[in-house]
Amino acid sequence: MNKKRVFIVIGLLLVVGIGGKVYMDKKEERKEAEKIEAERMSVKALKNTFEGIKVVEFVKSDYNMMTGDYLMIVKMTNINEKEVEFDYIYSNSDEKITSYGVIDEHGVQLEGKTSKNVKIIYSNGKEDEG
User: Fold this and answer.
1) Which of 53, 41, 35, 39 is nearest to 119 (CA)?
2) What is the pTM of this model?
3) In the predicted model, what is the mean pLDDT of the chain?
4) Dihedral, CA atoms, 108, 38, 95, 103, nearest 10 degrees?
5) How many domains are contained in the chain?
């Protein structure tokens, strides 16, 4: 009788442990998917802020739980093959860039709009156009 209880307890612990691991893995996948979607949407906002964008490569992006905004660090290349690395804050709720660092050494950060599709390299290494 005691051996039966021990096996039941061990079985329950295994089920709870495995279930918890699966739950945590799914939670991480959701967070990663939300971050990639925010990066994609922020490129739309970049296209409404700068002209002549050809490539946007995400170096890093972090979510700020206090403000609900993302801090993005990107390497942006324009149609003249000039590039600049800078950071900006993307408001997920407003779907716009609230501020950005001006590091325009090569004339890349020209204010205006980009109407053509740009190549996007996300922080997870996957590529897309948008």
Assistant:
1) 53
2) 0.78
3) 87
4) -20
5) 1
